[in-house]
Amino acid sequence: MAAEHQEVLTPLADVQRVVLERCTPLSPVEVRLDEALGLVLADAVTAPEDVPPFANTAMDGYAVRAEDTAEAPVELDVVGILAAGAAPLVAIRSGQAVQIMTGAPMPDGADAVAIVERTETVDPREGVRRAAGRVRVLDHVEPGKHVRSAGSDIRAGSTVAAVGTLLTPEHIGTIASTGAAFVRAHPRPRVGVMATGDELVDVGDTRLAPGRIRDSNRHALLARLRADGFAAVDLGIVPDQEDPMTEAVERAVATCDAVLTTGGVSMGEFDFVKIVLDKLASGTSGAGESRRLSVAIRPGKPLSLAFLPGPGSGRVAVFGLPGNPVSSLVSYLVIARPGLRALGGCRAEPPVRVPAVAGEALGRRAGDGKLHLPRVRVDWGPDGRLVARSAGGQLSHQLGTMAAANALALLPDGPGVDPGDRVEVILFGPIS
Ligand code: AMP
Ligand code: MG
Questions:
Q1: Which of 23, 41, 47, 259 is the 20 to 30 A CA-CA neighbour of 272?
Q2: Same domain as 287, residue 407
């Protein structure tokens, strides 16, 4: 305990600053629109054409001259029919109408649409299309009624999505409506995940020999990366030996934009990751750097951080995350993820803190100099505020509590919070 109190703890904000200063956006590339979800635009998208490209009807009905309906009900001659996709080859004059379907172009001469529900066909003859007869329009329709004018969604030449936009499905649709098949965006960071530890056995291996455990970190982090919109690269399990680990990290750095390792960064005799990262950094004649940190958070204290020269011009961030399953995920959320997002072109900023109310006491040991990040379940309270309650046991191997949680509460050093107190949370799962 005394030793722990003497060790130098680095505040979380300082670690985040180091990461965010070094994780600069990857060089932009041309990306197919349908592969651009979640990417950040490096160039603005400008509309080359009006959307909609022509005036068209928002309703099924009859295109009319509004002034002809002033004395409604009124009978008009139906001189044509227009389906969506048809070119507007008909025009109307006074006393005439064209039957028209939603999305069809407005014929010349028409300036409003009478909806079909408020019309009656006059003397409809069996087997004859309504378009051939006459129609009674029951209501006066205002000019422009049910007409979607050209450019009423997006004007030609206007900005559809600005530089820095994080593309949502809705942006993708909007960009598609302007005809762009490609966008220029920062690529999706390729992030490798490597588990280290001689005790680790992969899922699916039926026999768990004495002393061995399942590798859960790798699977959790791969899934977490995918959920966060990154391209996850499975780098497998690496034994606690310096040479294989060195080779594995070198290979990873040659093929990934960033690397996550788990385990091997604390005080054990076989914790080689920190040693390997230090050696790789020092072997780069100043181009790389590494540091071993005790971050002032719980869980997630041990961390090795390296920036190693990659195949391109930039350096590859290697996050040596702790081995304990909860610690590795928490360190990912508060330290690695902000950096990875910055690589993808997002604003370089620490995780968003959301205000909530403690639904019960969230206690903690005071005086350890650390920010505690207990796993909590956050739900909407009856007054519309978010309410945070402990998700269960808070030891760093209790991954089940992480699965039951959807947020981390931020408890600065002190006694914790009482029921009803304000508490900030970092959301990582849906609020149901
Ligand atoms: P380490 O940081 O390597 O000392 O590991 C700390 C704890 O986390 C030990 O109990 C390990 O067995 C456990 N651990 C390390 N890696 C994993 C992993 N990939 N999956 C599950 N548990 C792990
Ligand atoms: Mg280990």
A1: 23
A2: no
Burial class of 13 by CB neighbour count within 10 A (0 to 12, 13 to 18, 19+): exposed
Q: CATH no. for residue 370?
A: 2.40.340.10
What's the average model confidence in pLDDT over 294-313? 95
Cα-to-centroid distance, 205 and ligand 1 (Å): 18
Task: Please tell me the predicted confidence (pLDDT) of residue 2.
Answer: 47
Cβ of 82 closer than 6 Å to ligand 1, yes or no, is no
Residues 315 and 293 reside in one and the same domain? yes
Q: Does 349 reside within a domain?
A: no
Please give the number of the atom of ligand 1 that sits closest to the Cα of 262: 16
Average pLDDT of the residues in 403-429: 98
CB 160 within 8 A of CB 45: yes
- Of ligand 1's atoms, which has the minimum distance to the CA of residue 264? 3
Nearest CA to ligand 1 atom 10: 324
User: pLDDT at residue 125 above 80?
Assistant: no
| Predicted local confidence at residue 7, as pLDDT | 84
**More confident of the two residues 314 and 254:** 254
Q: Are residues 160 and 205 in the same domain?
A: no
* 338 preceded by a cis bond (ω within 30 of 0): no
Could you give the percent of the chain with pLDDT greater than 90? 91
Atom of ligand 1 nearest to the CA of 240: 3
The proportion of the chain whose per-residue pLDDT surpasses 70, expressed as a percent, equals: 97
Please work out whether the CB of residue 216 comes within 6 Å of at least one atom of ligand 1.
yes
Nearest to 186 by CA among 39, 304, 66: 39
Ligand 1 mean position, distance from CA 318 (Å): 18
**Which residue has the CA at smallest separation from atom 14 of ligand 1?**
323
For residue 173, give the CATH number of its domain. 3.90.105.10
CATH number at residue 238: 3.40.980.10
240 CB near ligand 1 (under 6 Å): no
DSSP string for residues in 22-71: H-PPPPPEEEEGGG-TT-EESS-EE-SS-BSSS-EESSSEEEE-GGGGTT
Give the number of domains in the chain.
4
pLDDT at 5: 52
Domain that holds residue 229: 12-27+187-343
Residue nearest to atom 16 of ligand 1 (CA): 323
The verdict on 109 and 176 lying in the same domain is: no
Residue 280, pLDDT > 70, answer yes
Give me the count of residues in the chain.
432
